[in-house]
Every structure is written in C-alpha cells, then in structure tokens.
Amino acid sequence: MRNIVRFTGVAMSRLVVQAEVELFYTDEGEGPAVLLLHGWACDGADWSPLVADLVVDHRVLVPDHRGHGRSSAPEGPYDAKTLATDAAALLRAREVSSAVVIGHSLGGVVASALAVEEPALVDAIILIEPAHGRPDDLLKPALETMRADPLKAATRIFTTFSTPESPRWLDIWRRRRLAGTPLRVIADVYEQLFDGPEALGRESVGRTYLPRRRCPTLSLYGGASPTFAAWDRALPHGPYDEVVEWPNAGHFPHCDDRAGFTALVRRWLSGLPPHRTAW
What we know:
about 280 residues, Rossmann fold, globular
C-alpha cells in the first residue's frame, strides 16, 4: 500500500495530509530549490550553517528522515528508496518542480536513489561522504555486531567521524542525538543499507545502480575515505561530475569546515549548465 505522509512545516505554513507518517521539515527562502538530506541517526540541524548561507538566494527545504529528529518513527523498513519516496512526496507537497539535492552519508544514498527513481525532480546531487561502495566481504561481521547491540556498535562507528581539528562539542551533540534515536531505527537503517540485493551501500549493488543517475554529481570525501573516493571515480561519470577529496575533514566536512564547504557548493553549482533552474 502506498505510504501517505503528513508534513509539519516550520518557517512557512503547515500542510496536513491524511497520514501514517509525519515528517518534520523546514522550508525557507526564495529562489532555486535545494533539498538537504541528513545522515544516519542525525537530523536536519546538521545543515544549519549551509542553510544560513543558501537561504539568502535559494529556497531551502530540510526534512528529518522518518525515524529521526522530530519526525515520526513508524515500523520499517528504513531503506534508501523509502526515504527517497518521502523526499519526493515533500517536494511535490510543497510544489517544488525540481531541486538540487545535497545528502550526507545515509542522505547521500537517499539522494542517489531519488536521482534514479525520480529523475525529473532532481537537477543535480551533491554527496558528502555517501555510504556507497562498502566491500561486500567486510559487511557480514559489521552487520552481526550491529544486530547484537545497535547502540554500542553505532557509538563505536561515531567515534571515527571527527578529526583533531573538529570542534569537540560536535562529538557530544552527535552522541546525544544517536542515543535519542530509536534502537530499531538505528539497526534497521544499517541493515537496509548493507544487507541484501537491494542494499544500495554495498559495493556490488552500487556498481550497477549508481550509473543509472543521469544528473550532474559532486561527491565529497573526507580524509579517512580515500578508498571510497577511488571506488567512486571508477564509476561512469558525466562531464560535470566531480569527485573531491578533503584530506583535513572528517565524516562531517559541512560541519568541520563550514565556510570552505559552502564555498565549494556554490563554486560547483555556478559551473553547471542551465537545467530547469537558472543557477
């Protein structure tokens, strides 16, 4: 049965539709539309520095994925295609014909799924440390650990996300949000990303799925992810695509180097050809 989603808006009017899922989102500014998709066990607040910059001359939509932040947490599955369906429903409900979609980690996989499944809605995608290309042979023990103790396993993963230059308060903020995310959501997102033939984070799945994207793509990888950056470069790419490595950044470059990240986004967008939206 098709999901029906209720959206609760902030910064603009409230829109209520008969619902089985409630997504919290903000919709601010005027101009070309940008949709920002956060990562696993996070929420849309991660985008606050970028929103503050873009909202000056863009319309910026920032949802919390189902199961995260202020959105409701229905029964799963919490796979990337389902989250992409939510994002598409939000764009249509807000009468956005198309947008540049920026996704971090899990949100990067969701952005790719949205570009493949709903190409008319996506002008371009910017992927920050996307959870693509994980080697199939290494995933089995990681999945077993996550199933045994989701919070402990996720907390261990989160300790790898910062660099010595990252603000210390960000680690506290992230751990607190992680602890506030339902355990079944933490576990199910990981399961859906990395287990089975539809798991878009798996190397074997992404190798055939991601080339179906037909929009310009910028992929950004922090200093701990050179292997994933190399894997990404080996995929088929279009003339406007870029794969960028940021050696001094951790898993959250948009938080670690806010000004540098925002400048990169604007520089890349300014070089795109006119496509439905005049950048």
